[in-house]
Amino acid sequence: MAKQAQATWGGRFSAGPAELMLRFSESVSFDRRLAPFDIQGSKAHSAMLAHVGLITKAERDAIHRGLDAVLAEIEAGSFKWQTRLEDVHMNIEQALTKRVPAAAKLHTARSRNDQVATDMRLYFKAACTDLIQRIDGAQRAILGVAERNADVLIPGYTHLQRAQPVFLAHHLFAYLEMLQRDAERFASVADHANWCPLGSGAIAGTTLPIDREFTAKALGFVDAKGRPQVTRNSMDAVSDRDLFIEFASACALTGVHFSRMAEDLILWASQEFKFVELPDAFCTGSSLMPQKKNPDSMELLRGKSARLQGNLHTLLVLAKGLPLTYNRDLQEDKPPVFDSHDQTALCLEVLAGTFAGLELHRGNCAAAVADPALLATDLADYLVRQGVAFRDAHHAVGAVVKLAEKKAVGLDCLTLADVKEVHPAFKADWVDSFNLPKAMARRTGTGMPGPAQVARQYQRWLKILG
Ligand code: ARG
User: Fold this and answer.
1) Atom 5, ligand 1: residue with shortest CA distance
2) Rounded to an integer, what distance in angstroms lies between the CA atom of residue 377 and that of residue 394?
3) Dist. CA 243 → ligand 1 center (Å)
4) Which atom from ligand 1 is nearest to the alpha carbon of 86?
5) Does residue 226 sit in the same domain as residue 153?
6) Which residue among 260, 283, 303, 364 is the one 20 to 30 A from 252 at the CA level?
């Protein structure tokens, strides 16, 4: 069963791993997506080796040419990935060695442990940039809905009960805030990723005279002033998986936001609300009930948020209890990260697509927001303006609500005599409290849903999203 000893580490072995062990331990099926970063890292590392004189410039150039050729093959899809060679690093190194004899020197002062840590840091920087761009795309689509429906008012809900009126735009801008924090989290993950582990070796660095700062600079691991940033502890550098967890956590939290937005849209698209019409392109029908139009894209967003949380949990459990430093368990760190990245990216596209095609049922929104009960708090504020203490005002308006229910009329259809009986502070203008445009205009503070504030926030988002 045993195969020939593995070329890169087989020196001390008389027999290679069993077929089953190869299948069990390979990671190339998923870590091959690190190839561009692995090659970038190898180019920087070999440039550094030449810089300090551990290889010649001619050897460096040959290695660089070889790496370019390998990358071209990978990009063209003609590269032969071999499970037998375990992972992306050894596949590339062996392919390179076949082309370039000097490649035998490439792994000088390097281990796969600091190599994979570097690849992943480069990957995280790119992945965060990618997701930040996609968040931006989703935000623009949401801003578009707000723009097209700037005058639409809807009830805002607490406990899923009608609470107070808001501009639809105000509700949508809440989504923009959530997504903006998500983008900031990804920016912070990218920032944390910006430290170069190369030179940490397998665990304890190297005895060879390398120049870590050179490599860091070559790979763009630099601060705002262009100064190289290298990790400060070789043991931490090869065993730290905080970034994986932070990235998955940022994805999971973004997923929670997906789920909450999706739930709003599912409710709004239901016959019971019917505030919005989801685009056909992001809905599906029923194989049995001909009338159905199901909000599947939104349900999947809600569902995928569970998966994103699962990935985070996988990583937390994976890292917990591991002794320093590298342990092979850590190879399992990549599938959840890649899955979180891919699913978050996909969700953001679907979110953008759904919002881009969202139509409002303006009549239903107007009917719902015309409910005078939404302005019961405004009525209490009216009494406060008449000098009544808020607690008393609240109590009085509660009694007014009760009376209206008893008489089976709208809150605004009671007579002045009715309400005066509840509280003498009610004057003839009490019923003005139910004038919706006037009521909205009273909400003037920052962060409130008054028309001037919403317009201001719209301008702010226009500026942020460009
Ligand atoms: N494929 C491995 C991983 O992702 C690379 C590091 C291997 N290191 C080792 N000591 N076996 O974890």
Assistant:
1) 112
2) 8
3) 17
4) 1
5) yes
6) 283
- Token pair, residue 375, equals 């302005």
- β-partners of residue 230 are 196
Q: Is the CB of 331 under 6 A from ligand 1?
A: yes
In a domain, 314, yes or no: yes
Query: Are residues 434 and 378 part of one domain?
Result: yes
The residues, any chain, with a CB within 8 Å of residue 357's CB and separated by 6 or more, are: 278, 279, 280, 281, 282
Look-up: residue for tokens 């881009």?
356
In one-letter notation, the amino acid at residue 455 is: A
Question: In one letter, which amino acid is 461?
Answer: W
- Give the residue numbers marked as catalytic: 159, 286
The count of structural domains within the chain is 3
Residue nearest to atom 2 of ligand 1 (CA): 331
Could you list the pLDDT tens digit for every one of the 466 residues in the chain?
445 556 677 788 888 888 999 999 999 999 999 999 999 999 999 999 999 999 999 999 999 999 999 999 999 999 999 999 999 999 999 999 999 999 999 999 999 999 999 999 999 999 999 999 999 999 999 999 999 999 999 999 999 999 999 999 999 999 999 999 999 999 999 999 999 999 999 999 999 999 999 999 999 999 999 999 999 999 999 999 999 999 999 999 999 999 999 999 999 999 999 999 999 999 989 888 889 899 999 999 999 999 999 999 999 999 999 999 999 999 999 999 999 999 999 999 999 999 999 999 999 999 999 999 999 999 999 999 999 999 999 999 999 999 999 999 999 999 999 999 999 999 999 999 999 999 999 999 999 999 999 999 999 999 999 8
Block residue for tokens 């190599």: 115
Q: List Cβ neighbours of 68 (8 Å cut-off, separation of 6 or more).
A: none
pTM above 0.70, yes or no: yes
Same domain? 229 vs 250: yes
Among 366, 386, 412, which residue terminates a domain?
Answer: 366
Tally of CB atoms within 10 A around 185: 21
Find out whether 122 and 40 touch, Cβ atoms under 8 Å.
yes
Partnered with residue 162 across adjacent β-strands are: 157
Ligand 1 in contact with 87 (CB < 6 A)? yes
Domain limits for position 428: 371-459
